[in-house]
Amino acid sequence: MDLATFAVVAACVAVAAFVQGTTGVGFALIVAPIVGLLAPALLPVCLLVLMLPLNVYVAWRERAALDRSGAGWITLGRFVGTFGGLWILAAMPASALNVLIGAATILAAAATLVLPSFRAGRQAFIAAGLVTGVTETATGIGGPPLALVYQHHAAAVLRSTIAFCFLVGELISLATLAVAGRTSATQFEAALFLVPPLVLGAMLSRHVHHRLDGRVLRAFVLVFAIVSGAVLLFR
Predict the structure, then answer these.
(1) Confidence at residue 25, expressed as pLDDT on a 0 to 100 scale
(2) pTM of the full predicted structure?
């Protein structure tokens, strides 16, 4: 990356880290389209690496609110979904993948607007983990399914559990991509240089995350899912 490109990406990383540190989701949605436009060779590995320290911080900060049972079922589905994502990377054109995931995400978010409040059970958690494993491994974006199943939980539960699930899933995806020969030193170096703006955004989020209202969080989650689906659909 040249200096101007790096400055734009670094600013996006700082903003995205603040958003995810505050709400629990949003980092990949903000960063992936920008990196995909300016430095597509860095995806998805650079994005996955950057999210590791961010999710360690959020999960530890609100560890008391972690939904251990839900996280366990999601991780089970996430592990299986990783191999589906790897297969899709090799077999499906990027344009077809974007249409499939984007349409499914928008439909899922739209459904929540008309469905009554619900508490996700084991099957919903496994399904969310499965879809996240596929989408995050293939594109770097995996937040919408997890955000949707936790949209009616307390904000701290959503943030801590999604961060933990992201962390475990990112490690699985990176290991799988490495074994498949789909990582490079350049991707890791770019992530290393982007850690300072990531830390800045995450640290700023600690001053506002506890003030977020539950209804505001749910509205953000729905908008986040719809917008991320549209990004994938039209990217």
Answers:
(1) 79
(2) 0.80
* Token representation of residue 189: 């170096």
Query: Which residue, 170, 142, 212, is CA-closest to 56?
Result: 170
Instruction: Look up residue 96 and give its two tokens.
Output: 């077809």
CB neighbour list of residue 109: distance below 8 Å, 6 or more residues apart: 144, 148, 222, 225, 226, 229
Map tokens 């607007």 to a residue.
Answer: 113
Q: Is the dihedral of CA 139, 141, 146, 149 positive or negative?
A: negative
Q: Is 197 left (phi over 0), alpha (psi -120 to 50) or beta?
A: alpha
Task: Write out pLDDT tens, residues 20-48.
Answer: 888 887 788 778 878 877 888 888 899 99
Angle of CA points 68, 69, 72, to nearest 5°: 85
Residue range of the domain that includes 105:
3-234
| Cα separation, 50 vs 192, whole angstroms | 8
Counted domains in the chain: 1
- If one counts every other C-beta atom within 10 angstroms of the C-beta of residue 180, the result is 12
